[in-house]
Protein 1
Amino acid sequence: MTLTCTCHCGNVEITLPQLPETAVSCNCSICRRLGTWWTKYEKADVSIVFNQQPSVGYIWGDRCIEFQHCPICACVTHYTGTSNYPSTQVAINVRLLSLSEQQNIHIRHFDGADSWTFLDE
Ligand SMILES: [Zn+2]
């Protein structure tokens, strides 16, 4: 089973291999502002299509990860490691899924602001 999630305007279409069981809600300086829920997948298992315009990246701080957003509707869609921190994985903002798809995802709260641990452990 595959499923597709999109940004608000439909420019960015992301196809996932399966519904995530868990996603991470992080309270770090950027995630708390974005309101994202992150689930990581192997890049090879995910398809990311830009129907009109490519996504726009945002890198700051230690320049290890790059957040991507749609240039049309501004939804944050995914992040990847930069060349400073290469990874075979991509993190998808699973809040792009439909509400019915989101409702069975177990949300784990990560304290990225301070202790760098899961608060539910
Ligand atoms: Zn969009």
Note: The mean pLDDT is 95.
Protein 2
Amino acid sequence: MIAPHKTITARSCGTCTLCCRLPEIEEFDKPANIPCRHCMPGTGCAIYADRPSGCRDFFCLWMSDPDLPDEWEPAQSNLMICRHGQQMTVLVDPEHPDVWKAEPYASGLNAMAKKAATSGGYVIVFVGDEIVKIPPA
Ligand code: SF4
Ligand code: SF4
């Protein structure tokens, strides 16, 4: 999902393709952490004009929430965050499995979990087969 994405904020996807690799995508029968068969790393989506609506409408949290600081940019942080109702889902690039435990992300995730908990929400981190619920700080 490379620019020319129209962004909600002033941010753009650049050369990031994490959302084409990290999540499971049922309509393509794509498992998590395997690139979509249409993804061309460094270039973008091979079927960009005809990509399905799920791709067309998707923005990760960094692209849609200007309150998320710049250092959470997926291409830089190796983390992709998205909301699923009350769940804040954090997908960690398995090539950088410990990045979420390092700063500024560890503190950031704790703060995120604390804020989410005030409205019944929670934060879940997925690293390969490992699933971790972040306790509210
Ligand atoms: S993970 Fe976010 S920044 Fe990266 S391509 Fe997807 S929407 Fe764009
Ligand atoms: S179809 Fe294109 S935009 Fe959608 S996941 Fe595959 S490569 Fe990414």
Note: Residues 105-117 form the longest helix (13 residues).
Protein 3
Amino acid sequence: MGAGHRNILIAGAGATGLAAAIELARRGFRPRIIDSDVGPVPLSESRALGINARTLTLLSPSRAADAIQQEAYRIDRFRVRAGKKVLFEIDPSKIDGRFPAIQVLAQGRTERLLLGKLSDYEVEPEWQTVLESVTGTMDRPHVTLRRADGSREEIDLDILIGADGAHSIVRKAAGIGFPGEEIEEAFYLADYRYPQPIDPRYVEISLFNPGIVGRIPVSGDSVRYLSTLPDFESRIAHPVPGGELVWAANFRIHFRHVARMSKGNVFLAGDAAHIHSPAGARGMNLGIEDACWLAYLISEGREQDYADLRMPAVKTVLKQTYGLTRLVTMHHPVATGLRNFFAPLLIRVPGFARRFLRSVAGYDTPPPVWIDGAQ
Ligand SMILES: Cc1cc2nc3c(=O)[nH]c(=O)nc-3n(C[C@H](O)[C@H](O)[C@H](O)COP(=O)(O)OP(=O)(O)OC[C@H]3O[C@@H](n4cnc5c(N)ncnc54)[C@H](O)[C@@H]3O)c2cc1C
């Protein structure tokens, strides 16, 4: 059977679903990709900002990485401070390989660039199309789609990819649980646009007792402030006056992952399979990695290996983000004092900064075996 003859549906055209569609299409498959929304995430409501080196490696064969590299902002300083004192600074571009450990691009732009690449392969998402139900056996899933005009379509599939986010219908229909925990602290974010250019090349985390305020560039004139403190806006050091608040949100952090990322020929990828805190900027990157591995395994006829191959990577990333989250949400003054004392010492321990940067780069999960020389 030729590659294009397998009937594949991708539910969800977020970053994960789009990456799956690109990687399948460039290998000769003709997947359908649907999304309940009217289009990609609005530019002003971009959750993910950090794109790591592993993602750019994975998106190199399709050249989507080139498009992202052209627009992304290079970060040359990651700074952690406590009050006026700089605890340490690290340069994310000081890592072996083709790409800096991390760059910044608003998720809305990343998704639009992925959409552009997908249309080069003549695949377009079907917007305003909801995956309503999944029935039949999970070996040969039968799905019902509903369009905006109310019309319905029933299809039998060879493969169903659930890239439909944290509340995944696919996951629920497959009867796969989503165990984990919600942590006590809420996180708050505020994106400001300024009337003059700002310096987009550095990320800064300011530690308070307790709490943090993170400063992450969104673009050449916009900054995101991310905090664990409800009153954090009074602690923002705006780079220039006249900033306009363009997006504010607060959210609670969950650490959850499925026990198994597939059932029969139903596969879960991205937030449908795992969610965690934004500390470390890993969520979207991990979803894109799932998608690229799944497409590769489908092309090799080895998709039944997907769940076993991906789970160690998911566990590694959840463990890393959990540790980082606990570091920034510490309350006890003794604990925060010890953290602030040891952080600058630890970063000078030989090999520590390199290991830290490799995990920021996403190089702490198995490299893609289909890309020559990938780390
Ligand atoms: C504040 C914040 C900051 C973050 N920063 C980073 C970062 O810097 N780097 C990083 O890598 N990650 C980051 N993340 C995480 C990242 O945003 C998510 O991991 C990522 O969006 C997951 O992508 P996805 O495609 O798997 O899911 P989603 O982006 O949730 O996409 C799922 C898609 O499925 C569609 N859908 C849902 N149900 C159906 C249905 N029944 N039928 C059809 N379509 C459906 C939805 O409309 C949606 O388009 C951050 C998250 C937050 C909250």
Note: The chain has a mean pLDDT of 94.
Protein 4
Amino acid sequence: MKTVALGRTGIQVPVLAMGAASLGSIYHPVSQQQANDTVTTALEHGVNYFDVAPYYGLTKAETALGGALKGVPRASYTLATKVGRYGDSQWDFSREATLRSIDESLARLGTDYIDVIQCHDIEYGDLHQLVEEALPMLRELQQSGLVRHVGITGYDLALLEKLAVEQKVDTVMAYCTWTLQDRRLGDVARRLNQAGIGVLNASPLSMGLLTRGGAPTWHPAHEDVQNACRAVSALCDREGVNISQVALQFALTTAAEQGIATTVIGTASKENMLDNIHWCEQPLDAALLQKIDELIAPVLNIGWDVLPGNGGKAQK
Ligand SMILES: NC(=O)c1ccc[n+]([C@@H]2O[C@H](COP(=O)([O-])OP(=O)(O)OC[C@H]3O[C@@H](n4cnc5c(N)ncnc54)[C@H](OP(=O)(O)O)[C@@H]3O)[C@@H](O)[C@H]2O)c1
């Protein structure tokens, strides 16, 4: 797997990274054996950057990832987790909660340091507390070596960019905003990258929207967006291609020019992980992409901040 620099962190990140939210059974029930198989397959192919959070499956994802990484030499993979979000509507960026969260994450992940610690879904939390308490606490922990780099994650690109530059964070993870259907991260990512901040594009399948099975019931995309994506999936099927292949290849082949270091995809399936890895090596079908672009045009860049659906994250 090709690797690139993650901003100025010194981390060489594979262009495809694994998001472990799915190990928390947020899409479908996942056993420890499935978690082990998926993580082992990823590692065998150089996908050695793992992103997780206490919130995913309410700690289940961290526990499953920790179990799957047991016995794997610590220096052979990069571990990113988060602080600040602990439930669907539960944020706490206080010093105490930040410290406690990291202690608990370290125990669940079976490690004594975290490579990239990120403040989770910042737009929903108390930004004053984030700046005055969580970030200074994380910088202190960075001095002690418990965490190595500090980042932020979220959906609101303007806020991510503003805070990242003001607070001089090391990484920014945005999600569902550099995909076949939403391409708003590009401009922001290029500027962040130029400022030396490592940019991670999470959810290239837009949290299941760009899969044959379609979005989960909790997905916040509007019905019009979901219908357009279903039409794209049907088109891909007629052309004998899985929509997820085109969606992942779109994100991967355009990442470098946008200043995106890595694409963080989630799966709890060894078979899907293998497909994702193989798709990295195959070219994007430009003629098919053109047809998709025509179908997607009416809903391009229509995120749930623009046109909310009925899913959870649309409501603050
Ligand atoms: N605010 C944040 O910080 C934030 C928000 C969102 C995401 N993230 C990060 O980004 C990661 C990825 O996001 P995500 O998992 O939510 O969304 P995603 O990667 O866009 O999509 C995951 C969905 O796609 C399916 N899938 C994966 N590979 C597939 C394939 N080859 N064929 C068919 N289906 C496939 C998965 O099902 P299977 O398990 O069945 O393969 C799952 O249902 C997360 O794990 C997390 O680390 C961060």
Note: The mean pLDDT is 97.
